[in-house]
Structure formats: C-alpha cells, structure tokens
Amino acid sequence: MNKMIFLRLTLLVGALLAPLAGRAQAPLTGREHAPAGRERAPEPLPAEERARLLAGFATDLKKWDAAIAADPSGVEAYSRRGDCQLFLGRFPEAVADFEKMIALDPAQDAPHWRLGIAYYFAGQFAKSAKQFEKYHSYDGGDRENGVWRFLAQARSDGIEKARGEMLVYAHFDREPFPSLYEMFAGKMTPDEVLAEMKRKGLESDENALFFGRYYAGLDEELLGRHGRALELLSQAVAGPVKGATAAGLPYMWQVARVHFDALRAEKMTKPE
C-alpha cells in the first residue's frame, strides 16, 4: 500500500475513533469513583438491538394509549402500558398505570409485584417495600420478592434495619436465591456468592447466572460501589437468558436493562 495513502487512512480512523474513546474514558458520577479500569462499564447491548427494543416499546405505548382512549376501564391495557412505561424508563408513568389497574380492580393489589418495582425505580421506597409485603402475603415462597422488599426497605429505613426485618422463608427457593438472600443479610459477599455458584456448576445455568450477576450488582450498588455494580449489571444484561424468543425477553431481563441504564445515567430518583 502507498505510504501516503496508509498515513491518511490511519489519521482518518484515529479521528473517527477519538470521540468514542473520549466517551469510553468519561468518569462515572455518583457516590464513589470507580477504581482504575472501571470508569465505564461495557455497553451490554449492540446499539442496533437497543434501538430496536426501545422503538418497539414506543410503538406498543402508542397502541395502548389508543386502547385506553377507546376504553378507559380496560385493566389489561393499563397493565401492558405500565410495562411499556417501565421499560422505557418512564417510572412515574408506570406507577400511575399500575395504580390505575388496582383502582379499577382491587383484586390486582396483593399480587402486583410489578408495582413494587415501579415504585422502587420512582424512588418511592416505603411504598415499594409495602407492596412487596403485600405480595408476600399472596405468595410466601418467592424469595426474590423478599430481595426486593429488602432493597426497598434498605433505601427507606437503612440497611441494618432492613436486615433485621427480612422476610422469613422456610423452604428452598430456586438457585441462586438462597445464597443471594444470605448476601443481602450481610452473611456473604457478592464475590463469595459468585464463587459458590461456580463451585456448584451454576455458571452453565443461564438463568441462575443472570440472577446471580444482577442481584450481586444490586448489593454492590446498595453499598455504594457503583463501578463494580455497573460491571455486574452489564454482564447480566449481556448474557443469554432462557426464555428469550423472537417475541421478547423475560421480564426481569428488561428490569435489569432498565436498572443498568438508570444507574449508568444516575437518573434513579433519590430515596424518600
């Protein structure tokens, strides 16, 4: 190749990559600065896939807007629109739709764990904790619900109080939630949970690996270690998850994606 042409190509590529490099090295903002090498968590989704997901939810949102305009008493329409709002990061709007569901049909209240998650993202942590308590009375065997109740109460009342009032579970729940529950209780570290999962051979279980990384990341976030939290959330979102089909991805994968985006952008509402 002609040396002059090669030099020009090199300069052109460098100019094109310079803005990207600048963004990749931008420091985090938040309660702590990440250690060296963790200034930015890896982007878990290709730009095209992210754009496709958000465009799909925006299209669905308009569809459910029209359905509600045609029939303001349709509970299902509020349910589906609330999900779209949540997945688009419109947290107060998601809360409003889910609360409207309950106003129309009070029987929806106790089982409505999605409202608890929406409250959490909207910064209404006391309401979030209360919603997960209601769900516990509806289904007392789902330890993941207890995780969210702990997270919400920790934000509202402090970690030590939340640890002292964690919901009690008498029966084994799916992996890796028993260990995750010990982690949130302060009896294991996130790294110990992930190491235990490896010893148990759970790294080959896509769902277990997803939940392990996601909730280990939430523990790191709660303790103020945002660099490590972003790293783990990025890994959770980037990894394959069982149940992913052409029709969509599992609900909690979408929640993890929203959580990663909110934490990275520091847009999550501050505690009450």
Commentary on this structure:
The protein is mainly alpha-helical. It is built from 13 helices and no strands. Helix 2 runs antiparallel to helix 3, helix 6 runs antiparallel to helix 7 and helix 10 packs antiparallel against helix 11. The protein is globular, with a radius of gyration of 21 Å.
User: Which structural class do you get from the secondary structure elements?
Assistant: mainly alpha
Shape: globular
Backbone CA Rg: 21 Å
Mean pLDDT: 84
The amount of helix comes to 55-70%
The DSSP helix count reads: 13
Question: How far apart lie the N and C ends?
Answer: 63 Å
Oligomer: single chain
Main β-sheet description = none
Beta-strand portion reads: under 5%
Any low-confidence stretches, pLDDT <50, length ≥5?
1-39
The helix-strand sequence is HHHHHHHHHHHHH
What's the number of extended β-strand segments?
Answer: 0
Condensed summary:
Helix content is about 65%, strand content about 0%.
Write the layout of secondary structure elements.
Elements: H1 3-24, H2 47-70, H3 75-87, H4 91-104, H5 113-121, H6 125-138, H7 143-157, H8 159-164, H9 177-184, H10 190-199, H11 206-222, H12 226-238, H13 251-265
Using brief descriptors, characterize the structure shown.
single chain; mainly alpha; 13 helices; globular; 272 residues; 0% strand
